[in-house]
Amino acid sequence: MGVATDYGRSDPVTRHHVPASNPERPGLDQFRLDQLRLINLSHVNDPATTSVFPGDPPFELVSVATVAEDGYHLQRVAQGEHTGTHWGAPGHFNPGEPLADGLDLEDLFRPAVKIDVRDRCARDADYAVTVADIEEWESRHGRIPDECFVVIWTGWDATWGDDAYFHYTDDRRMHHPGFAVDTVRWLIETGRLGRRGGTGTDAFGPDVGTDSTYAASMLVYQRHRVSLEILANLAALPATGAHILCGGHVNRNGSGSTALIYGILPPP
Questions:
Q1: How confident is the model at residue 8 (pLDDT cuts 50, 70, 90)?
Q2: For residues 91 and 253, what is the distance between their CA atoms, to the nearest angstrom?
Q3: Which pLDDT score, from 0 to 100, does residue 268 have?
């Protein structure tokens, strides 16, 4: 039985029935847990190598206790909820939509697909992934599952920790690839994102960097959909067959959380 929780509010915990496995479509529940493989999709949380979005709070790790002086090692962490690898909750952009403590556990554990658009993004820093790109991918890999994490691999992770990550130009506009707004709308309307699910990227967010209106984000961040951002190690995530599990802090009224995000793969 799966359990969804409101992370500590006073209303009752909701329990959801998990359907029995379909032997014709193997799922994670048909494998022993120790047969599953984990991959890390997160950057190390390090102020020396973390690109901080302009205007966000500074990222600080400060030693407050040492083994030599105090008998234990402890650091104080100060950073924004969207610094480094993170996920965002619907209320990050849309008033009245769920914040981190209003999500269900199932919202943070979804099937995932990876769409490799590195070649297009290398030619165009403002590349917006199209419906045609998705349909081309599906012609080779099959239909994207409903309520899925749709992850684009842009190649932007190669510049993590450099000033080039946010790719400012002389016009002081940010440039990085993302999803076309029509593509996000199509993914939602066809159920591929659905009520819960979301987008993922190794760049900063689902929008192209030049869109200061965050139109793609406004669509993604509705219902119980989340956005996975600044992912790492996408070379290890297969095009199909994986699930993604999002960790992180569930802050009261949180806009999201810095996170350890894992790919979970079935046995080879």
A1: very low
A2: 9
A3: 78
Span 58-90, pLDDT tens digits: 999 999 999 999 999 999 999 999 999 999 999
Domain ranges of the chain: 33-265
Exposed / middle / buried, residue 268 (Cβ in 10 Å: 0-12, 13-18, 19+): exposed
CA 159 – CA 120 distance, rounded (Å):
16
**What is the residue-wise DSSP string for the chain?**
-EEE--SS-SSPPEEEPPPPP-TTS--GGGS-GGG-EEEE------TTTPPPPTTSPPPEEEEEE-HHHHSS-EEEEE--TTSSSEEE-GGGTSTTS--GGGS-GGGGEEEEEEEE-HHHHHH-TT-EE-HHHHHHHHHHH-PPPSS-EEEEE-SGGGGTTSGGGS-B-TT--B---EE-HHHHHHHHHTTSS-SEEEEEESSS-SS-TT-TT-HHHHHHSSTEEEEEES---GGGS-SSSEEEEE-S---TT-SEEE--EEEEE---
Instruction: State the CATH class of domain 33-265.
Output: alpha beta
Distance (Å, rounded) from C-alpha 20 to C-alpha 185?
31
